[in-house]
Design brief:
The protein is an alpha+beta fold and 206 residues long. The chain has two domains: 6-72 and 82-86; 88-205. 52% of the residues lie in helices and 11% in strands. It has a four-stranded antiparallel beta sheet. A hairpin with a 3-residue loop joins β3 (125-128) and β4 (132-136).
Length: 206
């Protein structure tokens, strides 16, 4: 199983937060040396571009620093929510959410498309219908629970943005097994035959 790389767009938020804490004296050089991989330390020192990609191991070490400062679980979820609020008005996110609302399986579509923004070759796997969906993200089975919690919260919050039609959007596989994001739609989209199920067609082809 491949280890996914993560987009600079995601990672710059992690490194910016860590740098902010370091400049404020909340983190010492010893703290970063203890947790960050050598390559992650180089990423902190470099000017990371949003189009760059960063290996899983380095991203996990960034998230470990965040978890130690924010608290595991709820603290990471809250931080992800703030990033989602910032991203929700960006043009490509808005476009994904607009397409979400025009597809019978739009909820799963949004989660899958958002995962592609965050991970290179995320290789998502879709199951579901217009009422229910589940999107698995292979390659994260052995990732840290902190990274999966942060990633799940960020994708979920983004997918719910701008009046997403969900009764219950959750993620599981944090501790072990397949990592997936799943939910139920509270309002079914029209069943007009002209509205094509893009994800269902992709699942059949794949």
């Amino acid at each position: 199983m491949h280890d996914p790389d993560f987009s600079g767009r995601f990672v710059v938020h992690l490194t910016a937060q860590i740098s902010q804490w370091f400049d404020a004296g909340k983190l010492a050089e010893e703290d970063l040396d203890r947790v960050l991989t050598p390559n992650a330390q180089a990423v902190i020192d470099a000017a990371l571009d949003t189009i760059d990609w960063v290996p899983l191991a380095d991203v996990e070490s960034f998230v470990e620093v965040l978890a130690e400062q924010l608290g595991h679980g709820a603290g990471l979820v809250e931080w992800a929510g703030r990033v989602a609020e910032e991203w929700a008005s960006e043009a490509d996110i808005v476009a994904i959410l607009a397409r979400r609302d025009s597809l019978v399986d739009g909820a799963g579509f949004a989660v899958a498309e958002l995962s592609d923004l965050l991970m290179r070759k995320s290789r998502w796997q879709f199951r579901g219908s217009r009422e229910y969906f589940s999107v698995s993200l292979p390659g994260l089975e052995d990732a840290t629970s902190d990274l999966k919690a942060l990633l799940g919260a960020l994708i979920s919050r983004l997918a719910e943005s701008r009046n997403g039609r969900f009764d219950d959007l959750r993620f599981d596989g944090i501790d072990s097994g397949d990592f997936r994001i799943f939910g139920e739609c509270s309002v079914s989209t029209p069943t007009d035959a002209s509205v094509e199920s893009r994800l269902h067609r992709a699942a059949l082809i794949g």
